[in-house]
Amino acid sequence: MWSSSTPRVYRSWVRIQNKFRGWKGRKEFMLIWQKIVKIQAHVRGHQVRKNYRKVVWSVGIVEKVILRWRRKGRGLRGFQPEKQLEGPSWQIQPAKAEAEDEYDFLKDGRKQATGRLDRALARVRSMNQYPEARDQYRRLQACVNSL
């Protein structure tokens, strides 16, 4: 019933099955890989959009500080350099002690504001330092403006 070429036929069947299973495995792998790439693209886009808000906020703060500094000669709202008061020091001292008690919370707020400003300035500086970051910021800005 079987001829002498039967082992060759079996080998060819095994070879065909092997090639088919390899092709099928590669196809399934590529489908899974494409889905993973799509998920990664969505996650990375979300991260960039989330970071874009921080960058825009930082740029806005730095622009406001620059405008205030040019207009008034100072950068932080509410920050007033200590004025030289004329007259004997014994008249000013009680008022100064009361003012210190009342305005300690303002000093804390000012320290927090300068900290936020420093972080925003560092973010803008790092963005401005690298050409790739500048290009990415421009692309994001164009994308947001088109919406």
Short structural summary:
With 147 residues, the protein is mainly alpha-helical.
Structure description:
- The chain is built from three helices and no strands.
- With 147 residues, the chain is mainly α.
- The chain has one domain (9-73, 92-146).
- α1 runs antiparallel to α2 and α2 (89-129) crosses α3 (131-146).
- It starts with 5 loop residues before the first helix and ends with a helix.
- The mean pLDDT is 76.
- Its main location: nucleus.
- This is Calmodulin-binding transcription activator 2.
- It holds the Pfam family IQ.
Largest sheet: none
Which class do the helix and strand fractions yield?
mainly alpha
Q: Report the span from N to C terminus.
A: 75 Å
In N-to-C order, the SSE pattern is HHH
Q: DSSP strand (E) fraction?
A: under 5%
Number of discrete domains: 1
Radius of gyration: 34 Å
Mean pLDDT: 76
Unreliably modeled segments: none
Helical percent range? over 70%
Count of distinct strands: 0
**What is the global morphology?**
rod-shaped
Oligomer: single chain
- Number of helical segments with 4 or more residues: 3
Layout of helices and strands:
Elements: H1 6-72, H2 89-129, H3 131-146
Helix pairs in contact: 1-2, 2-3
